[in-house]
Amino acid sequence: MKKCGFEKIKGVESLYRYRPTGKYYARFVVNGKEVRRSIGTTDRDLAKRQLAQPQSQAATVDPCASKITLARLCDRYLATVRYQASKTMPTRRTLLLSLGIFFRRSSLATINDQVRYRSV
User: Domain 6-59 carries which CATH code?
Assistant: First the structure.
C-alpha cells in the first residue's frame, strides 16, 4: 500500500512531494505561520531550481495593503466565508456593516489612531 501525504525530499531544505499527484511543494514559515505552496511541477530538478520563488513571493509585503479601506477588507472577508452555514452569514454581515458605518472610508493604517481617540 502506498502512503498518502507529503514526503520530505532528502538533501533539499523546504522541498516536499505530494505522493498522490507527484507534484512538488515548498513548505516554509513566514511570520510564524507555516506556508505550503505548489511549485507546479513533477520534475525534481526543476522543483529544486524554482524553490526560492514561492518563498520570496510569500515574504513580500504588498505596499498598497495599508491603504486598503475597512469596507474593502470586509468584502474580501465575506467572499471567503460565503460557504458557511446560512444562519451564520446574516450575523457576520450585520457585524461587518456596523464596523463599516463606524469607520466609514478609513484606511487600515489610520483606524488604530481613530480607535485610540474615540475611546478617550
Answer: 3.30.160
